[in-house]
Fold these 2 entries.
Entry 1:
Amino acid sequence: MRESMAVAPTVSAETTRQSRDEWVDRNSGRIMVLPAVLILLAFAIFPLIISVYLSLCRFALAGGSFKLTFVGLYNFRRLLFGAQQYHFLGTLKPLDWPEWAGFGAFAILIVVWLGRYAATGLTVLGFLGRLVSASLATGLALAALATLPAGAYEGTLLTTCFYVLVGVLVQFLLGLGLALLCAQPIRGRHWFRVTFFIPLMVTPVGVAYMFRMLADMQKGPFAPVSAALGFGDMSWATQAWSARLMVLIGDTWQWTPFMFIVLLAAVENQPRDQLEAARMDGASSFQTFRDITWPAIAPIAATVVLIRLIEAFKIIDIPNVLTAGGPGLATESLTLHSFIAWRTQDLGGSAAVGYLLLFVSTITCVSFFNYAVRWTRRYQ
Amino acid sequence: VTRNSDARPLMQRLFEPRRLDTMALAPKIGTYTVLGIWTLIVLFPLYWVLVTSFKIEVQVDDGPYYLPFIDFAPTLDAWNFMLLRSNTLGPYVNSIVVSLASTLLALLIGSLAAYALVRIRFQVKLAAVLTFIVLLVGVIVAVAALDVPWPVAMTAAIVLFLLALNTYVRRFNAAVGNNDIEFWMISNRIMPPIVAVLPIYVMFQHLKLLDTQVALISTYTGVNLPIVVWLTRDFFAGIPLDLEESAEIDGASKFRVFFTIALPLVRSGLAATFMLVLILTWNEFLLALFLSNANAQTMPVLVAAQNTTRGPQWWYMSVLIVIMIAPVIVIAGFLQKHIARGLLVGAVKG
């Protein structure tokens, strides 16, 4: 076929098309990946590099235009040690002896963890990675302890870590519990599955307004209850921890379904014959869970927690609408902090906060992947 | 009659099931109670929003009324106002167009890349990648700090890059493989959008595309691409090779195989991915806040903007929330069967 075309002089257009097709076929892999690479370069890598530059600059409006002055690490220094420390790290007070004791215990844990890794044979890269994780954890622990004495307040970094760590843990436990209950031989499993999925579909901004409505102590649906209990005049929005708890409740309402739906799929998929054998042997339900269900679902559980960790660091909608970051800056997340800095024309500071968030979330997520996700997959 | 009689002692009958596919009475009651409570926790806020959307100001301000027709008279006032007399439909249409277009684009581009990464072996020279990064940084520094016009910087960079490809890059053998490329693509999801949004804002400002649907569609495509690659790669890895191979022996191109054989085989997974990405874009707030204003405003921004100086007007707000949830629930209903199956595949692969 091809030869007959090659000898015919009138089909030169045909042959160029054919050679073009051949070229496309030979390079099909590259052509398939190229659009994705270009889009990621344009919307992730390129902005990432520009943001580094912005975070090293001071932005000033001058006339109708703007001016960027290179200031080095000034923005980062200001957030970590300078005038903005109260906003990012918190209003810190010197540690007293109970805090020092807590820190000592924490430091011992870290050293033991590193030591155990070193004892099992180590690689330079592995040790360096653990050192990075350990220093982030130590830094966060120090900052958290320094906000414990009277008159000290948490900054946006600790607030975000609170949302992420406590939120993901609570959502995971709730999701796992519901999945285990739902995987039993009950009626209406389909109905529960569909219903429990719904909160995931509600826009986070909507969730925030919804919970503001529900938690309204004067006009909300629980107003008679709280009045009867004598809480009628109390407002959760004026206390730091009750406001944070409110944000956490909204976030948990929204994201528990995600954990639930994936964990349910995993639980339903566990090996049936092992379960039956365990029942024959008269194993208790706790033993069955520990020895059969948990090892079967652990890799999926770790993956789903990783996905949630990644997304949880980006929280902004709920604190922004529910409490506007208040009272003071008690419920402000890092993304909201960065957004507020942007709104006050402090572009360098905004980019610096964004970058610090990027560091913290990357180190946390990569650490979790290396120590937890890989560990649960060791039998596969 | 004999099936129901259980001769075991009472406590045992209460707590131990007779077979694996039945439940004893006590755990059964406990299970239904907990699941029932959680159903209430899920549904009550939604019920409250729905009822509130049929109230008028007085009925909200006077304290809680719970049951329409019984303790208050429902009206369509808020619905009337939001749908007919205020600009809700504009953002609504924007949201539909933006989320559908960007979800489909992300799905197409992401699954193409994922398929290629699963089926075709890639070897990208590490030296070429490093050169590219250095040149990219060089261009940005030259344009931003040294005021070199960007066409000049770009041309110089491209020439240098081509030169590098044909000279020293050939000497180094270290290469980046499929796993590395995949990891890079997926890891982009870790980046918080607040880090990227300022440069993206400036980029669209230069392109005169700020506050257009195009800006939102392309940004959302980029942001959600990592998720699509992450999920669909597992679906493609799970389908048997022989069908594709026989098609290729028959002379079908890789693209043909992708569209006619591979894609239909993973449609459950695609449906689940579609649903997840659609929910994420439909509800996205931060990027829309930066990139859209009056023209391209989407629903989440409109909802957030309801916080007036008099405090939020719950009855109007509720209408907005209801019309935002409704279409997603309808689509999820249609895709329900696929979502469960698709998630299972994804979940089992981890």
Entry 2:
Amino acid sequence: MSASPYEQPGFRLAEGGLVDRRVVLAFNLDGRSFTGLSGDTLASALLAAGKRIIGRSFKYHRPRGIITAGSEEPNALVELRSGARREPNSRVTTIELYDGLEATTQNGWPSVDFDLRRINSLFSPIIGAGFYYKTFMWPAAFWERVYEPLIRRAAGLGRAAGLADPDHYEHANAACDVLIVGSGPAGLAAALAAARSGARVIVCDEDFLLGGRLLSDRQEIDGVSGAAWAQSAVAELKSLPEVRLMPRTTVFGCYDGGVYGALQRVSDHWPVPVAHQPRQRLWRIVAKRTVLAAGATERGIVFGGNDRPGVMMSAAVRAYANRFAVAAGQRVVVFTNNNDGWRTARELHAHGIEVAAIVDARAAIPDTLRAGVAGRILTGGAIIGTTGGRGIRAATIETARGRETIACDTVAVAGGWNPNLGLAGHYGSRAIWREDIAAFVPGTPPKGMAVAGAARGAMTLATSLKEGDAAGRAAVEALGMTAFAAALPRADDENFAIQPVWHVTASIQKAFVDFQNDVTAADVALAAREGFRSVEHLKRYTTLGMATDQGRIGNVAGLAMMAALTGRSIPETGTTTHRPPYTPVAIGAFAGHHRGKAFRPIRRTPSHDWAQRQGAVFVESGPWLRAQYFPRADEKNWLETVNREVRSVRDRVGFCDVSTLGKIELHGADVGAFLDRLYVNTFSTLPVGRARYGVMLREDGFVLDDGTVSRLADDRFLMTTTTANAGRVFQHMQFCHQVLWPQFDVQFVSATDQWAQFSVAGPNARRALQAIVDPQSDIGNAAFPYMAAGEITVCGGVAARLYRISFSGELAYEVGVPARYGNSFADILMRAGAPFGIVPYGIEALGVMRIEKGHLSGNELDGRTTARDLGLGRMMSTRKDYVGRVLAGRPALLEPDRMSFVGFRPVDPSLRLRAGAHLVPRGAAIDAAHDQGVVTSVAFSPSLGQWIGLGLLQRGPGRVGERVRAVDPVRQDNVEVEVCAPCFIDPQGERLRA
Amino acid sequence: VPSFILTPASSLGALAWPAAPVSGAAPGVTVAERTGIALCNVLARRDAEAQLADRVRQHFGVALPSEPRHTATSPVAFAWAGPSQWLALGQETDGRAFELQLRASLAGVASVIDQSDDRAIVRVGGPRARDALAKGLHIDLHPSAFRPGDAAVTAVAYIGVHFWQIDASPTYEFAVFRSFAVAFWDWIVQAAAEFGVAVVQAPMR
């Protein structure tokens, strides 16, 4: 341990505070052991232990200490916890101390106490505002390789864990009549007024103890201490059934319709979350009314040497003494421009902490302030510089009477208060400048929100209580409830007066405006000289207020200085926009439960369990998990398996779960007419018991989807869609029915999940099925020809549906049974089909066979192709209207040069073809100018013994027989291919009709 | 006698077998799969809503709800599922038979489509059910806002659900598309874990 007085314990006051002296907590910073008390923050425990330097500054690596006692802390950031749970840039002032806490200081090398990069300070004259913009401009080639890595290494504060977060995060929703943001005097008064009236109330506070400033000041309410009053108010609120108290919860954003975002730190005060508890919970709170009682944040004064460890905010010094029973120092100089600094002097004196001097920038001080303070009083004075190596040892003060230096180990700075108006401004309402308190107050808050107390500019306790009470009553009355009548809590009202001093221009040292981003008074002046005078420009050019603390203690001083430099008033200069989040929110909290396998819900097919038992390899196909292929023990790779599956289907019989296709059941008298308008081709003429292939367009004339429609009865149809477009097509139909053609008698529902549907394909398909289908259902070629559809029964009376449709090009049936039988039916197909050589096949083989057959799929229906492009132009009826008809006739869509659907095969059959390859004429340069098309789908065809492909080529169908090159610049491929018709198998369709 | 007999299977399988609480604590939440129930979508034919309501009253003795409500007073319950459509719940195991029965009763005034296999019904109850469900449900379940008999069509954890409240204890039933049943189950069990969650047998009603 060092000999410095600041490194020795003994800063804990003998009595008082809201800490439990019986519960001693051990913790560790940079491997050194410390102890604190239950009720401490990491900051108060470190101050009690005399630890001064907590971090090094971002740019100049200057030693920095704790400045505040709240979430506005710019300096004292650490990495909290270790390993995968390490969380960088954690503010020690908001970390609730727990036994076993581990933290590491950041941005110091080799340590924060002795930092070699401090040398940056020597170059500080040249690394002012805009340094990066000006310096790293040229040579341009240096940017990626030299400058950026250099800046990245030097910049940044903490290190991310770099490992997957082992903890769970979750979302939660809450609704209430009145949401109270903040639990200080105004918040508690509002909560009591609303809750006593019977309203559903939620009170959120970022602190782990409710009470706000009442916990940190020595003021009485109703004859008891503020903290005691807060405690009894909280106890009363807790006893009311409709009240939810949420400490450790920051309301960080205000959104549409009374929706608020809040982050609850459920487990941040435990080393590891309790079993089944999330680390953090992201709340979506819907509030009918909201009272913003978020209090105010004390701001600094920009003076020379104001970043030296030991220079702190005055109200923070007071909070450490009153709430945590910690003397931030042993000899304090108070520097103030308002009455509140005097309260710090009074209360420190009452604690027996020496106040060496009170420096008030104001020349005249009301006599009442002088009561109860000790130490010298220097009016009309300002601190112009400080001395001390690793902490302040003296402050140099200039008054009209001259300069003097006063020894001290702490400077308490009282620069006035900024109302915490962030949430009120999230809807774009501009803050209003109030000269009497020298601060911005909220403009018009969002609908349903009222602002009360210090957040609205009430600088005294009695006014805050009164405003909170009034806001609570007004909220319940606005909801039609009767406000409960109770006496207002009594508190002495003091006077608040301020004469703002933003910047001590006589400063003899570097004076900081933004501590976290190392922005100085000189940087603001430079921005003014170089023309970056708008507050938004000032912010971006100097980075003032752009750090994780959002400049909460320095922004107003920065813009006031800019106002002074440019001869404008503060309201003329304006303020920057408040946007969510109020304080940083971890990305993990936004993701919540939805990460890893839970990123999106997985849909399982009705034969999932069966396929799993068969050892299927599964693949994610949109939201679905589908059997990709069914490997056998002796197969060396997936291609071998898929080739076997394809050959089995083409030679014998196979089956595949195709339940994922969208199925929409349509009933009603006008379904035929409805479908005629949805599809390019006609369905009203479809006979009962038949299926037909159809194509539907978007309004803009491009293809939306394809599928089949089967007519099961005069007024009952079943439509199928592609797996990928099921939801989109259903929405499109709802729009068409509800908005465009409500006159139709049509009712439809999704039946996708109702049916376990299997494609049974191959020359033996009928024989395999005949063993399962009940004898009264004739599935022979005469009774049930190609494109027949109907309701049948299977396995002794189970209602099923049968469709003679084929994606593979083989004799095929799709058979649907109620989904509960999916696993069982797959098992029965295996047994019934065994004599005929049946195999299950996955979607890989399904894809190979559809490519061999030249059927379209999502690769071709990519939203940029027309029916004509896909060779389906002749399906487009000229005798009726349908969605997309007019725009499909646009000249550009009728251009003969458009890329159209064809097949390809490599001229050298041993070569592989790649999907995504671009098509370039032989001998032409390989560049975008000669790009004539693209290969959309490829497969190794076991039937042809070579790779084949489908794709889109300019004037494709007219170029059959021509050779072009398929060029894949990404995979360095260049294969000569022959253009061919897209159907490689059985072009006459004889197998289908067998 | 057919050569092959189909065996039905729950979409949740072993997940829904009654089991002790996940976290060992007294269960704040119970979950159960409800089986032995037939479901049909009932959609009013064009301009036939009033006639449908008459027919339902006549055949099943209940008022067809015209707002998001669930009627549980007759052997056939009706849950509002959107404008002019309802989910009918029958004490049946055979969805096809239920479909044909409803079609006969409502011929000419409604389209009836069997959905018995399209949905899984998951029952969520217990003193902390509201807290667990609040982790995914945007709907306010406070007794002043959502009461027994209330129904809603919404989404939970990216899963479309149709749910209604059975009793004030409280108990809710969620109709979930069958292919999402496991995903929904995984979500509710994880959401409820901190309160203690037990898989129980759904009472047959």
